[in-house]
Amino acid sequence: MISLRKLLVKAANGKILVREISMEIDGHRVIGVYGPNGSGKTSFLKAIAWKSEGRNVSGECWIDGKPLFLPTVKAATKARKVLYLGSDFQTPFQVSVREVLEMGKAANPESLESLIGISEKFDLTPLLNRKFDELSDGEKQRVMIARGVIQSPKWLILDETFSKIDLDRAFIIANLLKDKVRMGMGLMVASHDLNLLSELSDELWLMKDGKIEADGPVDSVLTSENLALLYPNRMVHVVRSPDTGKKKVIY
Amino acid sequence: MNRKNTLLFVVIAILAELFLRLDIRNATLILTELRLPRLVLAFSIGSALAMSGAVMQTVLNNPLAEPYTLGIASGAALGAAIFNSMGFHLGVFGLNAGAVIGSIAVLLLISRVILKNELRFDSVILLGVMLSMFCSSLLAIWMAIADPIGVQTITFWLLGDLTRVGLKTGIALFVVSSIVFLYFMRISKKLDGFLFGESMVEGFGVSLRQTQTIVVVLISVLVGFCVSAAGMIGFVGLMVPHLIRKRMGTSIHGKILPYVFVWGGISLVMSDAIAHTVSYPLELPVGAVTALIGAPVFIYLFIYRKFGRGAES
Amino acid sequence: MANARLARLKWFPLSVCLFLSMPALAADRIVALNPMISEWAAEILGKEVALKKIVGSSEFSNYPEYLKTVPTVGPYPNIQVEKVLSLNPDLVIGSVEYNRPDQIEKLRKLKLNVIMLPKEELPQMKGWILKLGDLLGEKRKAEMVSEEWNRKMAVLRSARKSKSVFFQVQFQPLITVGSESFLHTVFQRIGYRNIFAHLTHAYPKVSKEAVLERNPDEVFVFEMETDSGDRHKTIATWKKSRVRFLNGDDFARCSPRLLSAVERMMEK
To answer: What is the CB-side half-sphere exposure of residue B63 using CA atoms within 13 A?
Structure first.
């Protein structure tokens, strides 16, 4: 469980990015985070993983009853508790996909996931010997999500990590992640694809101006009224998918 | 790049350094007193610089990083020049304390700025280049007003001169750089965490600032020693790690560091063999030789191997 | 018994003398670590002995002409220690002014007999020449050479001129002669006032403005083969003064040919 107390994030120029969010976040379910550009999603998610990068973070963030981000807590311990992945993965150096996946295992030797098993599930076996920097953006994202699963942190935070992954594979990976969540991992996913989020998430949070405007089960949060809070000038309709029964958004 | 041909090249380099253009008269004395010390020194400095370059490149996530681009070497050179002109000959094993002080001063400045402002990788490099230019211009000013014989000597030393110090210094340097090497091998998994840039480091279970600080301190001290022993020898730290990464097709430190270490040594020993025999008895500055060989190789690698190939989608 | 001891004592001073002059007597494989030394040594020893005894000399030792045939040990101050060693010399002569202390130390560590000569002592040179002569075991000849130098010096003094002069060692960048240099001292003896006498380095860099400001009567250009391309630029820059082009090699060091060159210059 993550407990946030008055989490406040300011940019270097003093602009408030996240406005004193206090909440308790339970594991065992997938939380989708949605909001317009500049709504503070990334700042919020990074603050949970305590990646400040020039921002000014105050407040408290406890994971499983412990303030994780004290200087005394070892980096290796943190890596077992929480992993934040963005969308853009670059390296100027030569590394093979296999080596990237091995690094996930190295970051958490206690992980039960096997490299072979995960690369099979993520359809990465043909890529194992390729160089990471030669992959397409979508392939890179798949590799990094797989790496995150191999690392098996208590909490996995995916910030737009699906942005370049094709529709079919996104669904496959979403289901694999759901399996992991059923086995106890906490998962937070930020995305601009509401239709994917409704499929993947149990809960949906809508963010605007550094605040959470609405949160709760996807079905109750994903309504045209709530979306009108985010986009007052645009009419957005919410319908149900005839196949999965999940709510979908159309303009 | 495997063990067999590495070993072969070690042998070739050693033989070249020891026996090329060896005068039969007084050969034993020349071998034991002159060529052996410079062989040991060349190997230890080459390996130290190459290893420092490789680690620095990943830790600062910049393929252009090496002790020279961070301004550490220029700081060392400036320190040594100031110390020399003031008539100090402090130091152990003939190493100039000024060089070590200079490199540590630059390091302290850089790390202070980094830690205070949480600078990003690219800013760090920019800062290094600025510092390097600053030190170089101070050095140029010093050269303009100093006595010409002194300047000529310093100039030669600045371009790399492996004849200044004896066998003891070479061995001492080798021991120091081996210890640093073993330490880097021990934390090689942590170093791997830097391969995907600053934002990913902590996620890999590696403490960003702590590792960065330790690595930069170790490298500065090592480079301070190297510069004070043999002047500025650039390009080894840039060229060797890249060549090894390309040849082995990986950047995982546990795999490349041993080869970087040994090939750094080989490349400087070979360069020195060329530098002091090609126009014997005229001795060429070894730093010029490494740059002369290194720059074209580097340009070739980057034009034909790296930029020609983009992401496939 | 007392007599026997006395007899031994009588020999003592002589044996001490012998011992002290041993290197001088024994030296027949000599390496000169800079051109000034090889030129003077050649002057003292004469062509035949010089070619036999001087087995190594630094690069750029080109006077007398035959010194060019002597194996080189590299350009001073960065000589090649290895080459010196391979020549197996029993005497290595360097000077504190022109050779690198660390290389000298290295040569000494290799058990070579290295003797360092001090800075030249102008205008007399006597002590310096005799020291070198002593090392070469040619005290007599050294005395003659030193007398010759002083005779020439005296002749030059008698021809004193009183003019201000700018010495141009190099045009780009502009390098001149300061008060530390032998050139300053020699030309001062014969009446030339160096416009940069107040600069203490031997060869300081100066600006063109500073030269024009001081408006020298004459400009002496020490010309090396490599920079003859600067001739017209030099003349254009110093057009208010009388510009004289001198062979740079003749004036590069305080050696026997220096005074002859000065003499020739004065005649013109």
So the answer is: 18
